[in-house]
Fold this sequence. Notes:
Number of domains: 1
Strand order of the largest sheet: 3-2-1-4-5-7-6
Number of helices: 12
Structural class: alpha/beta
Mean pLDDT: 77
Low-confidence stretches: 23-39, 271-292
CATH topology: Rossmann fold
CATH superfamily: Vaccinia Virus protein VP39
Order of helices and strands: HHHEHEHEEHEHHHEHHEH
Number of strands: 7
Helix content: 25-40%
Amino acid sequence: MKNSESLKKLVQEKYSEIASQENASCCGSQDGNDSVYHMMTDDYAQIEGYQASADLGLGCGLPTQFAKIQKGDTVIDLGSGAGNDCFVARHETGESGKVIGIDFTAAMIRKARVNAEKLGLNNVEFRQGDIEDMPVSDNLADVIVSNCVLNLVPDKQKVIGEIYRCLKPGGHFSISDIVLVGDLPEALKTDAEMYAGCVSGAIQKNDYLTYIQKAGFIDIAIQKEKPVTLPDSILDRYMDSDQKADFKSGETGIFSITVFARKPGIKPLKSLNHAIGDQSNSCSPGAASGCC
């Protein structure tokens, strides 16, 4: 079993490689199969603030669509990559807000900063750091978002604790991630490429939600959930035909979920004024079914 530091190094190396590519995906980028390439990504095309040049296909959901970001909010994006979710969040916060992207990989930070400079966004910044020890102060953020990142982190409980620390009282998060239901074959969980590709680092769905509850969060809700179907090109690497048939017919599953939770307390008056003055931003269009 690899230790925490070696897993972090693996992920950092993988994402440095992705940052240097014009077309990449965290999920099977070496395969060349489009069904693998896009098997976990959601379509941002209709989301306001979306920048195609900053979308590396690394996500597994649309957390900003459900994040209830308001004008003037301070938003933190964990694992910000080339900046895509930060730029969507910036559209929601407007010029009066602030967006901070945190990423573990120096190459991603450089790429994101170039993208922000091209867009002329002065209230979006990117900080290199480990989200197990975030480079931000206590009680800073109104909203925290993340897209398919916590599953890559060895100590998920520590990250969730950091999210709690960095949110203002009454602040909330909306996080998309990969979780498991039932047991995956060990080969899938331990393979290095699959770990960096969003599956083998995932934990059981019930454990994931329990960690959030134990950290002290309230109003926990799954805003969106969808199954992830591994294509045969991946399953064939680890299973013969009989094993694959058993896997597909069993109760084992891989799911993309978007989870909302709130830190207890009352938001500062300034944030409440923004909520009163701009109700249109309480939920993004099309997200009504997921609003809490």
